[in-house]
Amino acid sequence: MQGDNERLRRELEEIVERLENINRLVNFKSIERAIEEIKIAIGELESFRRKSTEGLDHYSAKVKLIEELMKDGGTCYLESEQTKLSKIGYRPDAVIVKDEEVIFVEIETDQRRLLRKLKKIRKLWSKIIQSPILTGRRLRIVFGVSDERIGKEVISETKKLNVEIYAVSSDSIFRLL
Q1: Do the Cβ atoms of 132 and 153 come closer than 8 Å?
Q2: 102 exposed, middle or buried (CB, 10 Å; 0-12, 13-18, 19+)?
Q3: Does residue 78 contact residue 67 with C-beta atoms inside 8 Å?
Q4: Torsion of CA 99, 163, 70, 37, to 10 degrees
Q5: DSSP per-residue letters across the chain
Q6: How far apart are CA 62 and CA 82, in angstroms?
Q7: Minimum mean pLDDT among 22-36, 47-61, 129-143, 162-176: which range?
Q8: Count of CB atoms within 10 A of residue 156's CB?
Q9: Sign of CA dihedral 62, 66, 69, 75
Q10: What confidence score (pLDDT) does residue 23 get?
């Protein structure tokens, strides 16, 4: 996937260069807008790079779940960049903003960390729902897990928060809760 992103980035940069050369001749606003949009796409592509501290399984599951959740559009912020959530002590793996909803995406490969994260969300709930990013939108919290077996305590916490849990493997994604 990393190699694909690099190839796509190079191809998009070549397109920008060609459009800039064309626009030097014709000077059209529409071409300027197209160039800006492609530059934004390059930036979005760059944001999908794996952090060096992030495990490959975690990264792959995150990208796969984000792709699934964004099939019908939206904007994705990794590590809650630009969402101001870290100021309240919560930093999801990704935040997907759509017209009518905001989706917090979390990936956990360990049941204990999953439970700890669910309890933290419940503790910060009143602050989370006051976040400006949620204005006029409903909130969905989606966890991706690698293990289909979910403990009773995790199920209990999940129901308290109305959280969705998906099993994410190398070849499939399906909802558990």
Answers
A1: no
A2: buried
A3: no
A4: 50
A5: -HHHHHHHHHHHHHHHHHHHHHHHHH--HHHHHHHHHHHHHHHHHHHTSPPTTS-HHHHHHHHHHHHHHTTT--EEEETTTTS-GGGGT---SEEEE-SSEEEEEEEESSHHHHHHHHHHHHHHHHHHTT-GGGTTSEEEEEEEES-S---HHHHHHHHHHT-EEEEE-SS-EEE--
A6: 19
A7: 47-61
A8: 11
A9: positive
A10: 92
At 73, list the tokens.
């559009």
Q: Is the dihedral of CA 3, 38, 86, 149 positive or negative?
A: negative
Structure tokens at 99: 């017209």
Cβ-in-10-Å burial (0-12, 13-18, 19+) of 81 comes to middle
Q: Tokens representing 145?
A: 């897990």
- Rounded to an integer, what distance in angstroms lies between the CA atom of residue 73 and that of residue 99? 9
Q: What is the pLDDT of residue 44?
A: 67
**Residue 141 CA: distances (Å) to CA of 85, 152, 163:** 14, 19, 5
User: What does pTM read for this prediction?
Assistant: 0.70
- pLDDT of 52 above 70: no
Q: Measured between alpha carbons, how far is 120 from 52 in angstroms, rounded to an integer?
A: 25
